[in-house]
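In response to reviewer comment 3 from the previous cycle, which asked for concrete evidence that the modeling workflow produces usable outputs, we include below a single protein chain processed end to end. The sequence was submitted unchanged, and the resulting structure tokens are shown without manual editing.
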Amino acid sequence: MNTSLSDRLRGLVSLFWREVAKFGTVGAVAFVVDNGLTLYLMHGPMSGSEVKARFVGAVVATMVSWVANRYWTFRRRRSVDNVGRELGLFILINGVGIVISTGFTWVARYPMGIEDKNMLFLAGVLGIAVATVLRFFAYRFWVFNAELDQEPGFEQDYELIDESIVQPGKVKPYGAVKPPSAS
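The workflow returned the following structure tokens.
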């Protein structure tokens, strides 16, 4: 192995920020879908039912987000063996996110007594921002969690930090050590 731990850490940070950028792009599209549909519903077919309008917008945006995150943002981390588990976790996490964004709208509407549609809309947007942080880390480490060892260029990173595999001061040739099997 010819790279240092600092080179690998820089690579991991770069990978992380690429995922954040892709997640942000998907999030921006889902944000437009969610809020565009919510605004349409609040001022049209669901006028007077702002909380339900927020819920519908969030559900549709969740479907868009699932496809985009699975096939683009986390494409190398998606499950090929257990798509049902992955989808179930994605729905669960998005359910929590929907409860957060809808909850912000509900709190503004009922306990706080706000009736202005624009203020209710902004309350939902604030809820989306809070839920987005939760979603990124949950997707990254729980839903789309294939081993980093499968990411091109990071196949042997465990050797850099696991002293039981590589003796201090001795670097084994690239590919000479297999990752420890998960029990």
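The helical segments are 5-42, 50-73, 83-109, 117-143, 157-161. We consider this sufficient to address the reviewer's concern, and the full set will be provided in the supplementary archive.
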